[in-house]
Amino acid sequence: MKQVITIGLDLAKQIFQAHGADAEGSPLFTRRLRRAEVLPFFEKQPPCLVGIEACSGSHYWAREIGELGHEVRLIPPAYVKPFVKRGKTDAADAEAISEAVTRKTMRFVPVKSPEQQAAAMVLKTRALLVRQQTQTINALRAHLSELGIIAGIGTAKIASLIAIVRVETDARLPNAARFALTAIADQIDALALQINKLERELVAEVKHDEDMRRLATIPGVGAITSASIKALVPDPGGFKSGRHFAAWLGLTPRSHSSGGKERLGKISKMGNPELRTLLVAGATSVLRHARGNHKAPRWLVALLARRPFKVVAIALANKMARIIWALLTKGGTYRGLESSAASS
Known about the structure:
Blueprint: E1 6-10, E2 15-21, E3 27-34, H1 38-44, E4 49-53, H2 58-66, E5 71-75, H3 77-80, H4 90-100, H5 114-145, H6 158-166, H7 175-208, H8 210-215, H9 223-232, H10 242-248, E6 253-255, E7 264-267, H11 273-290, H12 298-306, H13 309-330, H14 337-343
Parallel strand pairs: 1-4, 4-5
Antiparallel strand pairs: 1-2, 2-3, 6-7
């Protein structure tokens, strides 16, 4: 009986699929496993290479199976799909994972610890509450605009609308409208309270972490961005250079070159959209302060003079990503945009 060298495991809620192969890649078994049977199954297997798609629950299973003596590697689902021969079945997916995990040039996802997952949950919870806050604010604005009541642009301006809703003597609002909109106003206040609570926790965490403190000194990188990078990029050393890190974030042009002709398009928007959004927002804030500021870096002012604002924002976000990678992998402290531009 040939020894099992690799196992591809297709995850699910209840029914899992395992595909075993030998050193030559020949299939040895295909087995369906219930959730309670997964760990006992791997306890009986000799130490081998286990491939899992990086999806919901994958980091948990990677940790649990790794503690049994196996080497577990997480593969992005997009990199597994080309190995699926035909059709979409659990058995075909497990076989594709088993084949993909053995590729020498395959890229893997670092396994996160429970603490890293918890930090990401705080950020995702905040993002969810911010989306809900935006939805409720937009609903309040839309309903009041039907009655001819409007306010200025921005979240800070919504306080005047909430005050109108809660003034019972304002004749512009019918009683039924005031009753309904009061519930929306209460929801906006409750969401703002929860968001502030989470942000205070994030700021406190940044103050106690050396890496996040150093990242927060970069212009445009605040507590939220530094905490997001720390939680969502567990192994920055896995990138060869700052350019690879910026490309992973989707801040480099999409390449469609052939026949010796280079064709570069818009940014690829690959990688993590949350990190890319935070970096672009931070770069936009830096550029707004740089306009008309004689203390702004000369190269940044010159770039603004000859290129569109949004193009410069993407370029600055790309540079910020490279600086972040350098600080996390090489250590040291931030020296300023002017000196970093001269050294790059």
